[in-house]
Write a structure and sequence with these properties.
It is a single chain. This protein is α/β, with parallel strands linked by helices. It has a single domain (about 1-305), classed as SGNH hydrolase (Rossmann fold), CATH 3.40.50.1110. Helices cover about 40% and strands about 10% of the residues. It contains eleven helices and six strands. The strands form two sheets. The protein has a four-stranded parallel beta sheet with strand order 1-2-3-4, with helices on both faces. Strands 5-6 form a two-stranded parallel ribbon. Helix 2 crosses helix 6, helix 4 (about 75-85) packs across helix 11 and helix 7 (about 160-180) packs parallel to helix 9. The radius of gyration is 18 Å and the shape is globular. The termini are far apart.
Length: about 300
């Protein structure tokens, strides 16, 4: 199986590199309707980065026409979510960094002089935030990470994805455990989107797309198993799981429901008006799609916290 995967995916690595270089619990206190959470603290990669990599590169990356340091043509899901919750998204609470892997690596680092944080460093940053390695128990923490582990594996030429999948899911869950041990009670956790549906991967044909989709699904199953085990051991932790894999597939299967006329091309390259496209570039969704992500998260929070309106 792995030989087949390697043979079908080896050709995708150059395309992935080009696209990325271009773009890139039980509550302690009840939630209040007017102020459901004290803060929104985001960790992850370019899907949640609202300007960190843009700031450290002096505004050079991502370049225009990317929007205001986002890997997108407009605001991201966490910005839309803050609006829905009638909250401000505090820049000091945003730790997601474009290019981050689940480890201490970052796809956009240029060793040895330009080293950017991975997910592990982001967790350390959160824990060191107030100097006490304790976090705000009333804040909402969000974790969306893993896609860059997948892309790094594709570029590595390693025919066996098992090591990447085991390490990626374990790193993600360990970060959640560290946050919980420091006092976090509410954590939104996204699974891996279906990367086989991205324009970059679709460009290499249905066989490659199918293999990538299969591996993403397998990765998510491993992550679910580990989150199940964590939930069974820690009843004080409330994990709100967001099925990004299912969401992107529903957008592809039912584009009109989301206002899309194009779910395979890149708005950046003129596939269709951006507000009618699922994807902005080869791997990142448009702000229109990001808004649907925010709505999905918002509805998930409403189910868990009835006072969220």
């Amino acid at each position: 199986m792995f030989d087949f995967i390697h043979s079908t995916l080896r050709k995708v690595s150059c395309g992935i590199a080009g696209a990325l270089s271009l773009a890139f619990l039980t509550p302690v206190a009840p939630a209040q309707q007017s102020d459901p959470f004290s803060d929104i603290v985001c960790l992850g990669d370019s899907l949640s980065d609202v300007g960190r990599i843009f700031d450290v590169t002096g505004g050079a990356f991502p370049p225009a026409p990317y929007y205001d340091g986002r890997f997108c043509n407009g605001p991201l899901w966490n910005e839309y979510l803050a609006e829905k919750l009638d909250m401000d998204l505090d820049p000091d609470s945003q730790f997601a960094f474009g290019g981050a892997l689940t480890s201490n690596l970052n796809y956009n680092s240029i060793p040895p002089s330009f080293i950017l944080p991975g997910f592990e460093q982001q967790v350390d940053e959160v824990l060191a935030w107030n100097g006490r390695r304790k976090v705000d128990p009333r804040a909402l923490y969000t974790v969306w990470i893993g896609a860059n582990d997948f892309f790094a594996w594709l570029l590595s030429g390693n025919p066996n994805p098992t090591g990447m999948m085991v390490a990626g899911t374990q790193n993600t869950v360990q970060g959640i455990v560290d946050l919980s041990n420091a006092g976090a009670h509410y954590i939104v956790v996204f699974n891996l989107p279906d990367l086989g549906k991205t324009p970059t991967v679709l460009g290499f044909g249905p066989a490659t797309s199918g293999v990538v989709s299969y591996l993403c699904s397998s990765y998510n199953a491993m992550l679910d198993d580990q989150l199940d085990a964590l939930a069974a051991k820690n009843r004080r932790l409330k994990i709100i799981r967001i099925d990004a894999f299912a969401l992107i597939n529903d957008m592809v299967a039912n584009p009109a429901d989301y206002g899309f006329t194009n779910v395979t091309g890149q708005a950046l390259l003129g596939a269709a008006p951006p507000d009618q496209c699922l994807f902005w570039d080869g791997v990142h969704p448009t702000t229109a799609a990001q808004e649907h992500v925010a709505e999905t998260v918002y509805q998930g929070l409403r189910l868990e916290f009835p006072r969220v309106r």
